[in-house]
Specification:
This protein is mainly α. It is built from 22 helices and no strands. Helix 4 runs antiparallel to helix 5. It starts with a helix and ends with a helix.
Length: about 450
C-alpha cells in the first residue's frame, strides 16, 4: 500500500523530477508540538504520506519543505484536517501565532466533534502567545477533557488558572478603585469563572454590587461566599447589613448573631442590641413610640417610660394598700405601667385614687419621680447617692423651703436634670417628650440598666 501511495505521490509531483527522501529525525527540533494523529478513515490516502513526510521535515527544521508537504496534503484531500493542524504548528515555529490560529480553527471545523487534541493544544498555545489567556485556558481544558491522560497539560491548566485569577483580580480591583464598576464586575465575573470555589472573589464582587446599588446581586454573591467558607464572618456580617437596610430586622439580627458566633466584634454586638431594642419598640403601643417627638408628656407617658426603660428599678419595690387602687386607667394604653410605677411608689395616684393619666407633666413633677427613682438606685447600690442626697443647690426661682426643692436639688445634683438661664429650675415648665426620655435614660445610666 505504501508503494502505491509513493507512486501516486510521484505522479502528482509533475514539477519534481524525483522525490526527496524524508529525513530520519532522532532529535526533534520542536518537541513541544504535538504531532496530529491521522484517523483510520484518512490513513489510506496520499495525503497521509504527505503529512508523514511533512512532519519529518518539520521536526528536522526544514520549515519550507514541510510547508510544501502539508499544503500538498490539503490539495490532494481538502478535508485532511491533520495537515491544517501541522500548518498551525509550523506558523508557531515561525513565531507567528496570529497566522497559526486560523489553521487550528479550520482543523477543528473539519474534524467531527471538534475534539482534535493536537489542534486544541495548538490553538491554546496560539492564544496564549496572543495574550488571550482566558481563551487559551478554554482550549487547553477542552483538550484535557478529550484526553484526561495529559497530566502535563493538567498542571499547565492549573498554573494558568492561578495566573488568570491573579491578573483578573488585579484588573477588577483597579477598576473598582477607579469607579469603573461595570468593568470591575466583568473582571470579577471572569476571575470567578476561572476559580469558582474562591469565596473572597464573590465577597469582593458583592462590594462592587453594593456600590452599584444592586443589592439583590450583592446578597446572592455574599451568600455564595458564605456557603463556600462557613468561617467567613465578614460576608455574613454584610448580609446582615443589607437585610437591615431593607428593614428585615429579624433576618439582619440572625446574620449578625451568626457572624458573632464565628468572630467576636463589638460593633456588631452593638448592632444586635440596637436591632433587638428596635424590635421591642415596634411591639410597643404607638402612643409610646410617639413620645420622643411629643411637645409635652402626660403622666401616662412618663409612667410608661419609667415602667419600660427602668423596669429593674421597680422590682422588689412593691407597696401595699391604696397604691394599687387606681380608678381611672382601666382603658388607658399605659395602664400596665401606671400600676407598676404606682405600686413602686414612684408616681402615686391622687387622694381620690385617680391617676389622671392625661395630666401634663411639669418639671416639678418630673423631679419628684426622678428623686424617687434615684432613691431606688441608692438602695440597690448603698452609698451611690450620698452626694445627691447631701447636696443643697440654690435656684433663683425655687426656695429651699419649697415642697419640691429636695427633689429638684437631688435631680440636678445627680446630673439628671439641668437648670435654665440664671440657674432657674423652672418648676412649672412643661416637659417635652425628648426631655423626659433624656432624664429617664440618665437615671438608667446611673443605675446601670442602660
Amino acid at each position: 500500500m505504501r508503494k502505491l501511495l509513493l507512486a501516486a505521490l510521484v505522479a502528482s509531483s509533475a514539477c519534481a523530477p524525483k522525490i526527496v527522501p524524508a529525513p530520519i529525525v532522532t532529535t526533534p527540533k520542536f518537541p513541544e508540538f504535538v504531532a496530529p494523529p491521522v484517523p483510520p478513515s484518512l490513513a489510506d490516502g496520499v495525503a497521509a504520506l504527505y503529512e508523514s513526510r511533512g512532519w519529518a521535515f518539520f521536526q528536522s527544521g526544514d520549515l519550507r519543505t514541510a510547508e510544501r508537504e502539508f499544503s500538498s496534503a490539503l490539495r490532494s484531500t481538502p478535508e485532511f484536517y491533520p495537515a491544517e493542524t501541522s500548518l498551525g504548528y509550523l506558523e508557531l515555529a515561525r513565531k507567528d501565532p496570529k497566522a497559526a490560529l486560523p489553521h487550528f480553527d479550520r482543523a477543528l471545523e473539519l474534524m467531527p466533534q471538534h475534539t482534535d487534541v493536537a489542534a486544541l493544544i495548538g490553538r491554546g498555545q496560539s492564544l496564549l502567545a496572543l495574550d488571550r489567556e482566558s481563551d487559551a485556558l478554554g482550549a487547553f481544558s477542552a483538550a484535557l477533557a478529550a484526553d484526561p491522560s495529559l497530566t502535563d497539560l493538567a498542571r499547565r491548566i492549573e498554573v494558568l488558572k492561578f495566573r488568570n485569577v491573579e491578573q483578573g483580580l488585579a484588573r477588577a480591583r483597579d477598576a473598582a478603585r477607579a469607579g469603573r464598576l461595570d468593568e470591575a464586575s466583568q473582571a470579577y465575573t471572569a476571575a470567578i469563572a476561572s476559580s469558582p470555589d474562591s469565596p473572597f472573589l464573590y465577597r469582593e464582587l458583592a462590594g462592587v454590587d453594593r456600590q452599584k446599588g444592586d443589592l439583590d446581586a450583592a446578597l446572592e454573591h455574599l451568600r455564595k461566599a458564605a456557603a463556600l467558607d462557613s468561617s467567613d464572618a465578614r460576608s455574613i456580617q454584610q448580609i446582615g447589613e443589607i437585610l437591615q437596610s431593607r428593614g428585615d430586622v429579624q433576618g439582619a439580627e440572625k446574620a449578625y448573631v451568626d457572624s458573632l458566633a464565628i468572630e467576636p466584634n463589638a460593633e456588631i454586638e452593638k448592632r444586635v442590641e440596637d436591632l433587638r431594642a428596635r424590635a421591642a419598640l415596634a411591639r410597643l403601643p404607638a402612643e409610646y413610640r410617639a413620645i420622643d417627638e411629643a411637645p409635652q408628656v402626660t403622666r401616662a407617658d412618663l409612667a410608661a417610660l419609667i415602667g419600660i426603660r427602668l423596669a429593674p428599678l421597680l422590682q422588689g419595690a412593691r407597696r401595699s394598700g391604696d397604691a394599687a387602687l387606681i380608678t381611672d386607667v382601666r382603658n388607658n394604653w399605659a395602664a400596665t405601667w401606671i400600676v407598676a410605677v404606682a405600686r413602686a411608689g414612684i408616681m402615686e395616684p391622687f387622694a381620690n385614687h385617680a391617676f389622671q393619666p392625661r395630666t401634663v407633666v411639669r418639671r416639678v413633677d418630673l423631679a419628684q419621680a426622678v428623686a424617687r427613682l434615684l432613691a431606688r438606685v441608692d438602695a440597690q447600690n448603698p452609698g451611690r447617692g450620698k452626694s445627691w442626697q447631701s447636696a443643697r443647690l440654690k435656684f433663683t426661682d425655687l426656695s429651699a423651703t419649697h415642697l419640691a426643692y429636695p427633689a429638684a436639688s437631688i435631680a440636678v445634683a445627680a446630673g439628671v436634670l439641668k437648670t435654665g438661664d440664671n440657674n432657674a429650675f423652672q418648676p412649672s415648665k412643661v416637659v417635652t417628650g425628648a426631655e423626659a426620655i433624656d432624664a429617664i435614660d440618665k437615671v438608667g445610666a446611673l443605675a446601670g440598666t442602660r
